[in-house]
Design goal:
The protein is an alpha+beta fold and about 290 residues long. About 25% of the residues lie in helices and about 30% in strands. It has helices at about 5-25, 35-55, 75-85, 165-180, 210-220, and strands spanning about 70, 95-105, 105-115, 120-130, 130-140, 200, 225-235, 240-250, 250-265, 265-275. Keywords: Signal. Pfam families: SnoaL_2.
Length: about 290
């Protein structure tokens, strides 16, 4: 897309603001004064909100010398991020970050977007020396109606609890994905759940293991296959665990982001986004989806 003069000017201002703020702005953090967990969450939420508002200051949290972009629709680096923003129709962007979590060097979010149309997305940001140096995401267009149980892709609990069991919950969810989604060991399925008590936010699936079973049966009848082949990340905070995987859906290379809520050692709730991975010839950066 060819940007007109005002858009080129706006992009230049955005980049200049970011570069200047990186040196002297409010989010500067030395290695002795790294951002706290809460500060990094706030910085990420502000950065995402800037997509809507156009505010330049939050971009200062990005290290423009090292920023690696895994959204395949954006060119690499801070300039690629700015160019993507400038391509948005004026006033069209809306950003409502519903969930934000922290795990080590990563902050990950769950956001209701209008970004070239309505989207629900997970974003993952990696921090190094107090700055964002890498970004991954997965976006899916939401349906107009709730799922068979009346739930949306974004509603439900938003705050984590039980930080002391984060590691155990990550281990549980990683085992579930490996057993069930990657290797199809369905005989182990019921062991991960408290009976039929399972809240589902996938737009096509009803609550409970019974709802999951019906959806899988319907997919099989329609000849639609879903296969997880590799898990790339397992991130968690308390009772929330996000798993990033790749595989195939309906015969196409696909990225799966699955967010689980664990309660009393069992999987209690699930949100997800499913995004097709475009052919390599269409990638705007060479970093790969994962």
């Amino acid at each position: 897309m060819t940007l007109n003069t005002p858009r080129r000017l706006a992009l230049a201002v955005l980049a200049a603001t970011a570069f200047s703020a990186c040196a002297s702005g409010p989010f500067v953090n030395s290695t002795k004064h790294k951002a706290t967990m809460t500060q990094q969450k706030q910085q990420v939420v502000a950065l995402l909100k800037a997509i809507e508002t156009g505010e330049g200051a939050p971009v200062a949290v990005i290290n423009h010398n090292k920023y690696i972009q895994h959204n395949l629709g954006a060119a690499d680096g801070l300039a690629g991020f700015g160019a993507l923003l400038q391509a948005l129709p004026k006033g069209s962007a809306k950003v409502n970050t519903v969930r934000v979590f922290h795990d080590g060097e990563f902050v990950f979010t769950h956001t209701d977007y209008n970004f070239f149309g309505p989207k629900v997305g997970f974003d993952i940001f990696r921090f190094e020396d107090g700055k964002i140096v890498e970004h991954w995401d997965n976006l899916q267009e939401p349906p107009k109606a709730p799922n068979p149980s009346g739930r949306t892709m974004i509603d439900g609990p938003t705050q984590s609890s039980g930080l002391e069991v984060t590691a155990a919950n990550k281990k549980l969810v990683a085992a579930f994905v490996d057993d069930i989604l990657v290797n199809g060991r369905m005989e182990k399925l019921t062991g991960y759940f408290d009976g039929d008590n399972y809240v589902q936010h996938n737009p096509q699936i009803a609550d409970g293991l019974s709802g999951l079973g019906k959806a899988l049966e319907a997919m099989a009848k329609a000849g639609v296959t879903m296969k997880y082949s590799r898990v790339h990340k397992v991130l968690g905070e308390g009772d929330f665990v996000l798993v990033v995987s790749e595989g195939q859906f309906a015969g196409k290379p696909t990225s799966f982001y699955d967010l689980f809520r664990v309660q009393n050692g069992k999987i209690a709730e699930h949100w997800d986004t499913i995004e097709a991975i475009p052919p390599r010839a269409e990638w705007k950066n060479a970093n790969g989806k994962f």
